[in-house]
Amino acid sequence: MQHGRRRQNFGRISHQIATYVVMVIALWCIFIYAPTEEVQGIVQRIFYFHVSSAITMFLAFCVVFVASIAFLWKSTPWWDSVALSAAEIGVMFCTLVLITGPIWARPIWGAWWSWDPTLTLTLVLWLIYVAYLMLRADAHDPKRARFAAVLGIIGFVDVPLIRWSVEKWRTLHPKPVVIQAGGTTGLPPSMMLTFLVCLAAFWLLFVYLLRERVSLAQSRYDLEVLRHQFDTDLSK
Amino acid sequence: MGAEVMVHMEGVTKRFGKVFALRGIDLQLGRGRFLGVFGPNGAGKTTLLKVLATLTRPSTGTITIAGYDIVREADKVRSTLGVLVHRTFLYGQLTASENLQFYGRMFGVKKLPERILEVLQIVGLETHARQLVRTYSRGMQQRLAIARAILHHPSLLLLDEPYTGLDQHASTHLQELLRQLHAAECTIIMSTHDVQRGLELYDDIAIQCRGKIVFYGSAAGIDLHAFEQLYAEHAR
Amino acid sequence: MFTRQVLAILTKDLKVEWRTREIFTSMVVFAMLVVVVFNFAIGANPELIQQVAPGVLWVALLFATVLGLQRAVQMENEEDCLQGLLLTMGDRSALFVAKTVANMLYLFIVAACTLPLFGIWLHMDIASHLAPLSLILMLGMLGFSALGTLFSIIALNTRAQAVMLPLLFLPVSVPLMIASVYATSKIVEGRGFAEITDYLTLMTVFDIVFFVLAFLVFDYIIEE
Fold first, then answer.
1. Comparing C-alpha atoms, which of A140, C11, C16 is closest to residue B106?
2. Whole-structure pTM over 0.80, yes or no?
3. Residue among A80, A141, A219, A222 with most chain B CBs within 10 A, to mutate
4. Is the pLDDT of residue A2 over 70?
């Protein structure tokens, strides 16, 4: 068991180190390596954080979706922990998107907020998944996980519908510069590389946070079960 | 076996989140028998009845009622059950007949108007059939709830502390009704606090404590004194 | 058996509501309140009012829906009637269908009562566009009722019931909101039916997807 634990710890620590290293490289790329964009200036560098956060947020909510379905199907507490953890982390990245968006927008378009499709979608998702977290906090115990799972599924299924409806509504967001129609990217190679490095860093961070959070949730759950058993045994 | 055994429970546990309400219940009840379940508060009597009533699924173990598996053939099981708990399941804004009409339609009771009159006569409420239920006294509501429970000719009657809140007159009435039903070969499981009332009616006695059945035996020859001793001994 | 049970629950719900008319009156009054307050807030500029009218209309209907949903599900809370109901059910999703239809009916009646008034207050020409507007209303109400019924059952089991329902329900309904409001505004402006087919498609897809989804997961949330 010692051996297994050591291997586990080794895995965690190496993951931790990898995340730090890639993040530092990403920061270097973003601030030093990548060239300054002509039109938007230095502020454009936020784009790397902003888009990476958005993609990671989406990944997180995808995990919530899958874990929710798995939980409804299998009823194992582990899937519930995964859903909860991914939702928390997802909301965190979602908040990042909503903060970096306006910071980017203000110098460029002169307004803090514009109701453009992607940002609006992110805002609605923020509302949905914050409601998810509130539901978890507020619902009565045995049903809590199942309710959250249902919301996790509904929220994700809603995403294409929200996107479709908001798109028919406004368009102000810069056209996707990363991948354009025809397969060519609007980004010069150095920027593309920076973006990919940043994305990799965020994904590593996401997985690391997810692992740690799930482990915490599981420990908490196990503790509660043990505590309750202890209480009832004691009263015999 | 087969048609002789009405209720068969094996290895049944029920867990609500971290709380174990039932831990390993094994029980067999023959058709037409009257089982009294006794136990202190928190023993899990209500959960036991809820699980049998298909209101909640067992976490582990199997239950069959009249040969039907409670999880896979739940709808067949439900039509054989009559359930009475402290909440009456009656709609205050409807009259007694309307309430019975609703439940009759849900169960698909044949010749409903005649049956409604019949059960109202059995519980002595035929003169109040057109009164709104919210004008009923507690005793009258309980009586109507009994009418609701037996409306669809259930073969198994589940009663959870039915004497609670009833005055002397209503309690005697209920006791007499149970005697009649018992005589008519209805299988009855009743949980109660009241050690003194109706001891002579029971065929079998069970004592439940902290989620386990700590005593199960025939009621033949057990008088009040013997039972009180038994209860004190087991329900620690 | 499924249809029998759906009809039985539906008639029972309508009967109970008819005795008190609580749900219906509170929805109508609330919708009217919203419109009146909006008018005071926006000011007396008729052009401006006309521009925001479709939005105000749907906000009023939505808030009324949330109110109605909460009260509709409270009906089953007294005397734990919900448990009694579950004891009789074959397929539990029949309860979902019945409640959704009931909520739709309340909304429909509320809309029928308040639309003429709103037409006058908000300077909207409803009468000449009644047919397409009815279609939009129907599609909107179906989606809102289905999701609303599902979330109202969930909210019933939380501590802050009244707060939880709008919190869960409104963000998820955003696509339907957007489509309803825009379709309504285009129609009222006098644009042809052809211009709103996109929105109608969205609404139909939304309705189908979430009705089916809610139907499928209903069993999981209703069980103890």
1. C11
2. yes
3. A141
4. no
